[in-house]
Amino acid sequence: MTTQGGYPQIGGQRVVVPNLGGPPPAALGTIAFRVTLGDPGQLTSYTTTEDSWTTVLTESVTVLGAASAIMIFASWDGIKTNAPVCLLRARLRIDGSVVAEGVAVSLAPDEMASSIIQAVVPEAAGAYTVDLQMFVEAPDGDFVIDPATGGVPGVDGRQASLLAREVPT
Amino acid sequence: MSVPKFVKLAADATITSADGWQDLLTTTLTVDQASSKILAIFTTSFASFAGGGYNTHFRVLLDGVAQPCSASGAVPVSATNAACGATAYFSALSAGPHTLKLQWNTENGDTRILAGAAPDVYSADLYVEEYPTTGTAVLATEKAPLYDPLAVDSTALNAFSVLHTTTYTTIEASAQLLIVVSLATQLTLVTGSVVARVMVDGASVGGMAYTSFPGSGLEFGAAPMVRCPTVAAGAHTIDVEWHKTAGTAVVCNPATASEVNCCTILAQEKAA
Fold it and tell me: Which of B96, B129, B197, B207: CA 20 to 30 A from B82?
């Protein structure tokens, strides 16, 4: 593997990937199981800090089962407000540990971007803090998510959301 | 808990900047419990047929009211593609039927989703599900999800090839198989598109494409896909296939480049 611009360039061939999750157990339907669903994190406004991971949304989830996992969905919809082209990155954390990342996009000025990042992570019973963080490489300016102004005149609904919930394994 | 609803654009759709917000997909979800939330996931892929450098926007309406569930994508130049998607959760609902719409709006040009002519490239899909917030009786029936992140490097070819594959087993005789794919790639030095599609047991359930534009010499793109085919009980193979139209497109192993690239598959059996 070589690198270009600080990021890997690859020429390798695909190999078989193990199934990391496995099929659901057939007996699951008979197991008593409860979910605590946190309120959805909804954003008031967010502007990136260059070259620093900053928290967009935080959610609390309580796992009740002894053999459960936390399923996380997060998404964002925002705009790059200034020049030049920048790289925007996102990641998910549980109690400060990164559990998913890699959803990176390049954005030119006035371009908007949205995507979904997700994870399912086995966890023991207990309370956990989940957060969505984003990062913009310096010196490339600001990525703004602003539900109040919409980022673009006449366009409403700019948002970021985060949900974490217990699921069976 | 009610049966989740999934709707998929089956015909070509076109919009211009003069059209304002237009309906794209509509479904009705009947909520059993007033305390429930609604999970909504949508993903889209579209192309510019006139001009570039503009954004196209999507939003979800619940009973006619726009919700904080939106996504936007930028088409860099004419005759290129963009893709986007979002998740959201709505609460404060009454029990009974609720109408959900996916709408779209473009800033310029002639924007099209060629879901009929080229379903492996263009798509619009909306999944909605009642999420109960309490109650063991309802939640005891939930099936375990599968989560499978790609763990190796991969390089796209000029025609579809498998990027990532996994297997998920459904239990019920007839079920909906919710699949959410999050993909992020890099394309070097040229203007070209990354095209990806989801295959279930060897059959395509729709694709998407986005174009990287070499403004800084090394471009990154990311887009999700939500799909929900109805399947019979048994093991199902879920493949993410991809190709590129120019240059060199790669997904780097999360173990060595986790900060920029990924291909994750989330699958979960749902009631049909």
Answer: B129
What is the per-residue pLDDT across A101-145, written as a single tens digit (0 to 9) for each? Answer: 888 888 887 788 889 999 999 988 888 899 899 888 766 667 777
CATH number for the domain whose boundaries are B143-271:
2.60.120.760
Of B72, B136, B215, the CB nearest to A34: B136
Task: Flag whether pLDDT at A31 surpasses 60.
Answer: no
Q: What is the complex's ipTM, to 2 decimals?
A: 0.93
Domains of chain B, by residue range, sit at 5-138, 143-271
Residue with token string 């088409």: B75
A115:B85 CB<8 A: yes
Q: Determine the number of helices (DSSP H) and then strands (DSSP E) in chain A.
A: 0, 13
Chain A positions in Cβ-Cβ contact with residue B233 (cut-off 8 Å): none
Equal fold, B5-138 vs B143-271: yes
E-strand stretches of chain B: 5-8, 12-16, 22-31, 37-48, 54-62, 65-75, 81-90, 96-106, 110-114, 123-131, 146-149, 154-155, 161-188, 192-200, 203-212, 218-227, 230-244, 248-251, 262-271
Domains and CATH numbers, chain A: 34-168 (2.60.120.40)
B166 touches B238 (CB < 8 A): yes
Candidates 3.40.50.300, 3.40.50.720, 2.60.120.1340, 2.40.30.20; correct CATH number of B5-138? Answer: 2.60.120.1340
Whether residue A59 lies within 8 A of chain B, CB to CB, comes out as no
Average pLDDT rounded to a whole number, residues B33-42: 87
Q: How confident is the model at residue B226 (pLDDT cuts 50, 70, 90)?
A: very high
Alpha-carbon distance of A101 to A86, in angstroms, equals 17
Q: What is the pTM of this model?
A: 0.89
The predicted pLDDT at position A106 comes to: 82
